[in-house]
Automatic annotation (TrEMBL):
Family: Belongs to the glucosamine/galactosamine-6-phosphate isomerase family. NagB subfamily.
Annotated pathway: Amino-sugar metabolism; N-acetylneuraminate degradation; D-fructose 6-phosphate from N-acetylneuraminate: step 5/5
Organism: Faecalibacillus intestinalis
Domain of life where this protein originates: Bacteria
Catalytic activity: alpha-D-glucosamine 6-phosphate + H2O = beta-D-fructose 6-phosphate + NH4(+)
Keywords linked to the UniProt accession: Carbohydrate metabolism, Hydrolase
Name of the protein: Glucosamine-6-phosphate deaminase
PROSITE patterns from the UniProt entry: GLC_GALNAC_ISOMERASE (PS01161)
InterPro entries associated with the record: Glc/Gal-6P_isomerase (IPR006148), Glucosamine6P_isomerase (IPR004547), Glucosamine6P_isomerase_CS (IPR018321), NagB/RpiA_transferase-like (IPR037171)
EC number, as in UniProt: 3.5.99.6
GO-annotated biological processes: carbohydrate metabolic process; glucosamine catabolic process; N-acetylglucosamine catabolic process; N-acetylneuraminate catabolic process
A GO term, aspect molecular function: glucosamine-6-phosphate deaminase activity
HAMAP family the record matches: GlcN6P_deamin
Gene Ontology cellular component list: cytoplasm
């Protein structure tokens, strides 16, 4: 696990953007695993700026998102499908048919099975992750089996609270109670992983992920077993780490 400690969120976003831009330049038909939430917003902005300025092309890139709320139409402003177009896809030249986000409507189990099939046929080159304050990656909450594939989950109260604060104007009742998420095995199958974490509220999760035991009670700790992981954290998120990085 390569750990990069930077001053702040801006620097973390710049480091992550560099990695993804280089990936696409070196392999124009890369398969990208993408994430939503507040963490990657600035990184996506940097990718859009680079595309406009330097013409890095995504026309042969495929993308697969980690997760999606269940019960929201793709056009709903809080759906992750909508988020991805607003924050990234509308500003780059990726083809609509190459964009994949789990379907948040219809038969939830069939949607999971179909997504797993696509992932099996399209191995991800580089997977972007954030980390929840309880150590979740994607919507793989504490206790999720490390062998899990794309599945539907009942969201924990802490995750609903976090998402209400960030995206639903504090209204916990507006946050869907279920989501579809890549499983931990799907994430571990990616050839490389980049995780960004910033802020004091992530310090406990970051400490457990990097220096704690590998346990399903802190899902991100499984990344210690991956052969190519880069963790980019600011000083606030790194505050509890005991080793030198």
């Amino acid at each position: 696990m390569k750990v990069i400690i930077v001053e702040n969120y801006e620097e973390a976003s710049q480091e992550a953007a560099k990695i993804f831009i280089n990936q696409v330049k070196e392999k124009p038909n890369s398969i990208l695993g993408l994430a939503t939430g507040s963490t990657p917003v600035r990184m996506y902005e940097l990718l859009r700026e680079d595309h406009e300025k330097n013409h890095t092309s995504y026309k042969d890139v495929k993308s697969y998102n980690l997760d999606e709320y269940f019960g929201l139409d793709a056009s709903h402003p809080q759906s992750y499908h909508y988020f991805m177009y607003k924050n990234l896809f509308n500003g780059i030249d990726i083809k609509d048919e190459n964009v994949h986000v789990p379907c948040g409507q219809g038969n939830i189990q069939e949607n999971c099975d179909e997504y797993n099939k696509m992932l099996a046929e399209n191995p991800i080159d580089i997977q972007l992750l954030g980390i929840g304050s309880n150590g979740h990656i994607g919507f793989n909450e504490p206790g999720t089996d490390f062998n899990s594939k794309t599945h539907y989950v009942d969201l924990k109260e802490s995750t609903i609270k976090d998402n209400a604060r960030l995206f639903f104007n504090g209204d916990e009742d507006a946050v869907p109670k279920q989501a579809i998420s890549m499983g931990i095995q799907n994430i571990m199958d990616a050839k490389s992983v980049v995780l960004i974490a910033c802020g004091k509220n992530k310090e406990d999760a970051v400490k457990g992920m990097i220096e704690g035991p590998v346990t399903p009670e802190l899902p991100a700790s499984v990344l210690q077993n991956h052969k190519d992981v880069t963790v980019i954290i600011d000083k606030a998120a790194a505050a509890l780490l005991e080793k030198e990085y």
